[in-house]
Design a protein that fits this description.
91 residues, 80% helix, 3 helices
Length: 91
């Protein structure tokens, strides 16, 4: 029984790590597109960049929500790694 619990804990930790990685990738892509907003003389290009930037914002929020649902609820304080990641994201 404890072996099954250990596998479950490892699996949950892996899922959280994967979501953290996805979150950091989305943050980097969002920052890249944010820097390009309004930088083109073409209105169509600026509109496409704005839509893409908004899509990354929505995706980041969804991944953040999924990560929050997977975090252990043992304490009210966030682990240091998560707190620093949220600070970098501006949340």
């Amino acid at each position: 029984m404890s072996e099954k619990l250990a596998i479950s804990d490892d699996y949950a930790r892996g899922r959280r790590d994967g979501l953290r990685l996805a979150l950091s990738i989305l943050e980097a892509e969002e920052a890249k597109w944010e820097a390009l907003l309004g930088g083109s003389a073409s209105g169509r290009t600026n509109l496409t960049r704005a839509v893409r930037h908004k899509a990354y914002q929505v995706a980041r929020k969804r991944v953040q929500t999924a990560l929050n649902r997977l975090l252990p609820r043992s304490g009210s304080a966030l682990p240091g790694e998560i707190a620093s990641m949220l600070d970098r994201a501006g949340l």
